Amino acid sequence: MSVLVLGGAGYIGSHAVYQLIDQGEHVVVVDNLETGHREAIHHEATFYEGDIRNVDFLRSVFKKEAIESVIHFAANSLVAESMENPLKYFDNNVYGTQVLLKAMVEHDVKKIVFSSTAATFGEPESVPITELQQTNPTNPYGESKLMMEKLMKWTEKAYGIKYVALRYFNVAGARETAEIGEDHFPETHLIPIILQTALKKRAHVTIFGVDYDTDDGTCIRDYIHVEDLIQAHLLALDYLREGNPSNVFNLGSSQGFSVKQMIETAKEVTGRDIPVKMGPRRSGDPSILIASSEKAKKVLGWTPKRTSVSKIMLDAWKWHSSHQDGYKKEVKK
Ligand code: UFG
């Protein structure tokens, strides 16, 4: 039997595939390669190129492969893009999940672990954010992920598909060996932008807002190492295999770092100069996001091992400095 990983060529999905294979699982990857990279797919995984919104394509994968469970990463995930083009997000993220669930029902696959996000909460009532806080997304990306959670909830009631929704905070870092890592185009995330500046691929980092109500005036985020994050997915899969009920977990390191602190950490880790410019706030950015991950620790037995931001930065640096143009960009042009 195989684990089907949707979006297994993306940043987070590719790390999941590597860890699943490390654990001796047989893995089937589906990815449309819109934002994913063929080079990121583990050579031992069986790969099908295609779009999850294409029900005939998905049906053919479920027919050919003996799928035991699904881990679903295939989604668009840029907040700003979602504000400009919300329908893209409802189409790919929500409709794509609807088609997937239909195929799962037809083929009697009853377990799914999937990526949700801290963006389902919107502006938090308080920090650290527990799973019990109100969800009130402030952008279509967060709304689409919340809708995905709701699709799961109602399909469980009707068809018995058990799910675990994992609400990620700021995922960063890379596999320790630097075989795979983060490569988005355009890049919008803070750590890759800082490290591309250290590599002189960018002239400077613009800090989006220095007038927040925080100690140094810049936004505070909870950075979680991608390898720790994936460990929680494997535990969530075991949790479902043991017959436990559907559930939702926040995944973060439970510690906050400001944009300025992240830039200082990067200077220490890389030993490079990182020029900075102060800019206005980016619309839609909450000032502080910090997860409470107590529930994941208690219920899943999750023990994140790479919680120091220096370690997260170091692993990201190993990847970026050894893949300065990401995955073979020249092939894509
Ligand atoms: N930032 C800068 N300059 C940059 C890029 C980012 O100052 O060039 C700041 C942002 O304003 C923010 C922090 O760095 O305060 C982190 O920004 P990222 O874009 O790296 O991450 P976000 O916190 O915006 O987004 C993350 C996930 C999203 C998710 C969101 C939930 O990447 O998928 O958290 O709020 F939706």
3D structure, described in words:
This protein is of the alpha/beta class and 333 residues long. The chain has helices spanning 11-22, 55-64, 79-84, 86-106, 140-159, 190-198, 226-241, 259-270, 294-300, 309-322, 329-332; strands spanning 2-6, 26-31, 46-49, 67-72, 111-117, 162-168, 170-172, 205-208, 220-221, 223-225, 247-251, 257-258, 276-279. The strands form 4 sheets. The chain has a 7-stranded parallel beta sheet with strand order 3-2-1-4-5-6-11, with helices on both faces. Strands 7-10 form a two-stranded parallel ribbon. α1 (11-22) links the parallel β1 and β2 (26-31). α2 (55-64) runs parallel beside α4 (86-106). The longest helix has 21 residues, at 86-106. It is globular. The chain starts with a strand and ends with a helix. The mean pLDDT is 96. The structure holds uridine-5'-diphosphate-4-deoxy-4-fluoro-alpha-D-galactose (UFG). Uridine-5'-diphosphate-4-deoxy-4-fluoro-alpha-D-galactose binds at residues 77, 79, 117-119, 141, 170, 188-190, 193, 205-208, 219, 221, 259, 282, 285, 289.
